[in-house]
Write a structure and sequence with these properties.
Blueprint lengths: L1 E9 L19 H14 L8 E5 L3 H31 L4 H11 L5 E3 L16 H7 L1 H9 L12 H25 L10 E7 L1 H11 L6 H5 L8 E8 L12 E2 L21 E5 L3
Parallel strand pairs: 1-4, 2-3, 2-4
Antiparallel strand pairs: 1-5, 5-7, 6-7
Helix pairs in contact: 6-7
Amino acid sequence: MKQAKLILLRHGQCEGGNILRGKTDVSLTPFGLANMQASVKKLGLINQANSLLIFSSPLIRCSLFAEEFAADINQARLFSENNDTQFAASASYSLKQKQEQQQDKNLPLQVNLLPQFQEVDFGDWDGQSFDALYQKHPQALDQYWDNPWDNTPPNGEPMADFEARVTQGLAMITAMLDKQLESSKAQSEQDNPATALVVTHGGVIRHIIGQVLGLERCKGLYAQLAIDYAASVTIDIFWPESQANNDGDSLVSVKADSTKVSANKQAPSSAIKPVYRLNWPS
């Protein structure tokens, strides 16, 4: 059975104070950056560089860290490859090993920016402080938190549209992980599965959790579920050999609609649906 891993990493503390931060493009504070660095270090992803994909929201509180992390991995790989080259000069390397080494040198890790994983756009409320908003629009805010699907902020993004684009992004990444597994046997081994790191936002993570758990329009995910700054959520992805073997008690299947995947990132032709298992946020 093929398997992969999806890691969702929320951005750290941001500049701007206690504001409703959706499309507002603000930088991380030094404390927020340090927290993200500590969180990603615990994940041990540098050791999985050859099987790692990195995705990010385009907003700078996510993308700048993702670019920095990718650069760190590329530097670590270059250092390792230089050591291997020195070893090869004094030892016997097979032709296959040399070819694989050269291939790694030619393929530095890149960050894929996906607008599908950008935070929801709060419209006219975006970037304003919570105190100011509650002074001006207390009833409208309460209605939004209670039922964001039927109460969109002025000029804001409807929750249904936000959730649809996040679902599309999840399908795209799942398809890319599936393609990576198909193209390399080494990446399909269970001790080093293909892994995607997604640097994103609290609202995006909450929706994906709800989707994996089969919770539709669950207001508690947005109003009561706390996702700390720099928190990570790991989701295991499986492609069962037979749908009849799915364990409905422990695994939840989420339909990845290949019709929503962009033309240059089409899902594999296999009819097997991916199965997702959530590991609790840490």
